[in-house]
Amino acid sequence: MQTVVPPAVSAILLDIEGTTTPISFVKDVLFPYIKENVKSYLHTHWDEKECQEDVDLLRKQAKNDEELEGAVLIPEWCSGENADKEQALEMVTNNILWQMSQDRKTTALKQLQGHMWREAFLRGEVKGEVYKDVAPAIKEWRKEGKKVYIYSSGSVEAQKLLFGYSIEGDLLELFDGHFDTKIGSKIKAESYREIAKNIGCSTDNILFLTDVTKEARAAEEAGARVILVVRPGNTELTEEEEMSYSIITSFGELLLSDLKAN
């Protein structure tokens, strides 16, 4: 099956997990790396400015989470030069592991994860996994004058690492820009309006490719066009969802005009 992209589309916005990259890479490689190495990473980098900024952001997030059931808090004394390092390390580590167990998408968590993954990618311990159909398709879209952007819960830095150090080589030149949760939640319509403003187009000019129906609904509410991506290992769609959206299983199934379809 092939899906025709309306001529009005000038920008293609891509999710990562389950869209450009297997969910298994995120769940079986990236997240376990954080869980296994977070305490040693914090111990090694604790006295560095970047790490202290990460800890301070995590502490502020923990304060906002005080009312959540089971929340793991980080006292104020855990950040700064006078912190008891070992006790602080334990509390910050426990907070990170709790957030991950709840599948939180907070900017504080994603920032720390991004810094850890940067070290892993630069050392060659991890390489970004990208579906084989992704790079060839994006190259074709760009030849046709389309702009291509990434919008992911992972930090912009983490996105650039994944594509810059991928098994397919450095793919960063394929993208015109990157967005993360700093612009807003992926399940809020306003986020897609903000992205359109940032790009300099109408939401009607944006095609969003994602595997998550909550994100698809938010983008649609904002006026963007949406196609769901079905990949191996993705959450199975309901019959209603299958009826409600255009679906592709490969980027190669997108056609950029009716002329190409004939």
From TrEMBL:
It is found in: Cytoplasm; Nucleus. Its EC number is 3.1.3.77. It is an enzyme of class 3 (hydrolase). This is Enolase-phosphatase E1. GO terms for biological process: L-methionine salvage from methylthioadenosine. HAMAP family: Salvage_MtnC (MF_01681), Salvage_MtnC_euk (MF_03117). Monomer. PANTHER family: ENOLASE-PHOSPHATASE E1. Binds 1 Mg(2+) ion per subunit. Substrate binds at S152, S153, K186. It comes from the Eukaryota. Pathway: Amino-acid biosynthesis; L-methionine biosynthesis via salvage pathway; L-methionine from S-methyl-5-thio-alpha-D-ribose 1-phosphate: step 4/6; Amino-acid biosynthesis; L-methionine biosynthesis via salvage pathway; L-methionine from S-methyl-5-thio-alpha-D-ribose 1-phosphate: step 3/6. The keyword Lyase does not apply. It catalyses: 5-methylsulfanyl-2,3-dioxopentyl phosphate + H2O = 1,2-dihydroxy-5-(methylsulfanyl)pent-1-en-3-one + phosphate. Its cofactor is Mg(2+). InterPro entries: Enolase-ppase_E1, ENOPH1_eukaryotes, HAD-like_sf, HAD-SF_hydro_IA, HAD_sf. One of its GO terms (cellular component) is nucleus.
